[in-house]
Structure formats: C-alpha cells, structure tokens
Amino acid sequence: MAAPAPLLDVRGVAKSFTMHLRGGIRLPVVANVSFALHPGECVVLGGPSGVGKSSILRMVYGNYAVDAGEILVRDEGGAMRDLGAGDPRTVLALRERSIGYVSQFLRAVPRASALEVVADPLVRLGTPRETARDRAAAMLARLNLPEALFDLPPATFSGGEKQRVNIARGFLTEHPILLLDEPTASLDAANRDVVVGMIREKLRQGVAVLGIFHDEPVRQAVATRILDVSVFSARKAA
Ligand SMILES: Nc1ncnc2c1ncn2[C@@H]1O[C@H](COP(=O)(O)OP(=O)(O)OP(=O)(O)O)[C@@H](O)[C@H]1O
After folding, report:
1. Domains along the chain?
2. pLDDT of 20-47, one tens digit each?
C-alpha cells in the first residue's frame, strides 16, 4: 500500500539571518529541516529556547523566505505547491484555503469589534455576514469571552482575552493545516482546557496541526509527535 500523501512536506530547508546593522554577519539558525505532516497529526516543535522553532513556523507560513529547500503544501486541487519559493500569489492563495495560523499576539484592525475580527476570514471566503457573525459569537462563547466584549474592539482587552479572540479567528475557518504558536500562553487553566478540546476536535476532523507549546500538559494532551528542532540546528555545524 502506498504511504498516505502528506498535507505539508518540508524538504531540506535552511535559514540564516543576515544582520545588516552588524556589518552583514550571517547568523545560521537551521539547516536540513525535513519533516512531513499528515491529516490528523499534531507535530509539536520542541527543543531549547532560540533553537529555531518560531523561525520554522514562520517559514511554513511564508513569513520568512527560505535560503534552501522546499516547503510543499497541498492545495485545494491536491497539487503540492512550494510556498518556500516566496511567490506572493502562491503564499496568499495557500493562506486563504490551505494554511491557517494562530500567532501568539492578535494584530487587530483598529475599531473593528471582536465579533468582526473573528468573523472576517469567513466573510472573505464567501460566508454571509450574519452567518459568520453567529458562528463567531458561538466560538467566542465557547472560549468564555464575556458577551459584553463582543461588540468592542479588542485593543483594550486583557492578554488572555486577546488571545481567545485570536484563537476563535484561527479556528473558525476550515484550513486543512493549522499552525499554532503558543496558543495557550496567556490562558487560565479552564480556557486552556477549552483550547485543548478544540485542537483535538480539529485533529479528529483530519486537520493537520504544527505547533509550539511550552506548556507541558497541553503538549502531552495534543501531540502525536514531538520534533526536536535541535537536530536541525545550524549552529552546531557552523
Ligand atoms: N528576524 C530575525 N532576525 C535576526 N535573528 C532572528 C530573527 N528571528 C529569529 N532570529 C534568531 O534566530 C534564532 C532562533 O529564533 P527562534 O525565535 O526561531 O527560536 P525559538 O526556538 O522559537 O525560541 P523560543 O523558544 O525562545 O521562542 C535566535 O537566535 C533568534 O535570535
């Protein structure tokens, strides 16, 4: 039987940063990063601080260009497309339909209410505004955000409230791949458990998750595999 096709196939990726304000010195971070992500899998990036976990996540989302290698993402039609090549149209198309991302911090649009911030990706994908707002409200309620906050802009919300708005926004769309950067970092235990439940639900639906979780109980509850990023460290070899 043929091996199941991955949703994400990272092949031989390398990244170094050039420090322009330090005479252009190059800071190698990772090299030969290779792994695949299949439906229903949750791969957690592990390893010590500064080893390159966030850098890998950002490359997979197309925020950082790669120096070498490929980041192949399965598109809607089933073709594997290289997001690492940095073509902006490919990156945007894959972000719309294939890869979702929950960053640690909410980058909110000024004046937009929490409900609008959460509903916006669905509206852009063609869901009627009212339906999108209803679904956004249900998701925010599940995350225990007080209803009094739904119509307010998240700019003045607490760290944990902002993080829940961000999670709701990222989880409401149905991307086959979901990237999570410390989604529970600012949450209390009860809301952390809600998010763990939401991640497991995504995995049951066949979504593939790639994430960073420093919180050990969360990691234990969701990881199907832990990938130690130290094995890709470019500094040892440098
Ligand atoms: N934009 C950047 N410019 C220069 N150096 C960077 C940049 N982003 C990351 N680095 C460097 O790359 C290395 C890896 O950083 P990264 O944030 O990927 O590590 P991490 O494993 O996610 O760390 P942590 O667990 O502390 O968040 C660090 O030495 C960091 O200083």
Report:
1. 8-109+174-232 (3.40.50.300)
2. 887 888 899 999 999 999 999 999 999 9
Q: Please count the other Cβ atoms lying within 10 Å of the Cβ belonging to residue 45.
A: 24
Residue of 201, 197, 198, 196 whose CA lies nearest to 218: 196
pLDDT reported for residue 238: 47
For ligand 1, atom 13, which residue shows the shortest CA distance?
50
- Interatomic CA distance for residues 16 and 146, integer angstroms: 43
Residues 18 and 26: beta-carbon distance below 8 Å: yes
The predicted pLDDT at position 106 comes to 77
Q: pLDDT by residue (tens digit) across 148-164? A: 999 999 998 999 999 99
CA gap 85, 71 in Å, rounded = 8
Q: Which residues line ligand 1 (CB under 6 A)?
A: 17, 27, 29, 49-55
Answer whether 137's CB lies under 8 Å from 194's CB.
Answer: no
The residue whose CA is least distant from atom 17 of ligand 1 is 54
Centre of ligand 1 from the C-alpha of residue 195, in Å: 26
Q: Of 145, 154, 205, nearest to 177 (Cα)?
A: 205
* Closest residue by Cα to residue 119 from 132, 130, 104: 132
